[in-house]
Design goal:
It is a single chain. It contains ten helices and no strands. It is mostly helical. It has a single domain, classed as TRAP transporter T-component (Serine Threonine Protein Phosphatase 5, Tetratricopeptide repeat, Alpha Horseshoe).
Length: about 210
């Protein structure tokens, strides 16, 4: 009787936990808005803590929704942004984990979130240090960003990152063309905060 009671209790607790588990549709907007706030609004001294909290929440959402690509993509985006503001050896570990998460997501749903997997991989390969420190490779970055543009040709992010890469490679005319296309990208419903921040970045880059 005691074993039966314990079994029923554990089963009830498991069902209760499952009922409380956050769905992707519930959790993703919070990650997106949290990222925009941490990246564009939060004071520099507080960014790392904010990204750390967001990373933990993204990992929890991914664990609660196995087989879904979206939480993995956003966990990778948050990790790579955290790495940008952290720097040092800790950042290297984060960008390597971010790439692994994106490759996992690619196996599930390659074109998810308007090609965000390839946009993020392109950004990582463009900004990461090269071998032997990390995996940075501008040629591979361009290939990933071109794949992102095939999926989402008018998107603000793939055009921004590709334009930025072209500028870094000394191709001013083509870089400016993609940046202006990014600036004219249609708004993303529910992502107004991210769009505002990204447009400010683009305008600053064009102003240089």
């Amino acid at each position: 009787m005691r074993k039966l009671f314990l079994g029923l209790l554990l089963g009830s607790l498991a069902l209760s936990f499952a009922a409380r588990a956050e769905t992707v549709e519930e959790g993703l907007p919070a990650l997106q808005h949290g990222w925009a706030e941490a990246y564009y609004v939060t004071a520099a001294a507080d960014k790392e803590k904010q990204f750390e909290r967001l990373g933990a929440r993204a990992a929890q959402l991914a664990a609660a929704n196995p087989g879904r690509a979206e939480p993995l993509v956003w966990q990778a985006i948050i990790l790579s942004s955290h790495a940008k503001f952290e720097g040092g050896l800790g950042a290297l570990g984060k960008i390597k984990t971010a790439r692994e998460l994106l490759l996992q997501a690619e196996k599930i749903q390659p074109a998810v979130l308007d090609g965000s997997i390839y946009t993020s991989l392109g950004s990582l390969y463009a900004k990461a240090p090269g071998w032997p420190i990390a995996y940075g490779d501008r040629k591979k970055a361009a290939e990933y960003l071109q794949r992102a543009l095939q999926i989402n040709p008018n998107g603000i992010d793939p055009n921004y990152f590709y334009g930025d890469l072209l500028l870094e490679q000394g191709n001013r005319a083509e870089g400016e063309k993609y940046l202006r296309k990014a600036l004219a990208a249609p708004p993303r419903p529910g992502r107004e905060d991210a769009d505002t921040g990204r447009r400010a970045e683009i305008a600053a880059l064009l102003g240089k």
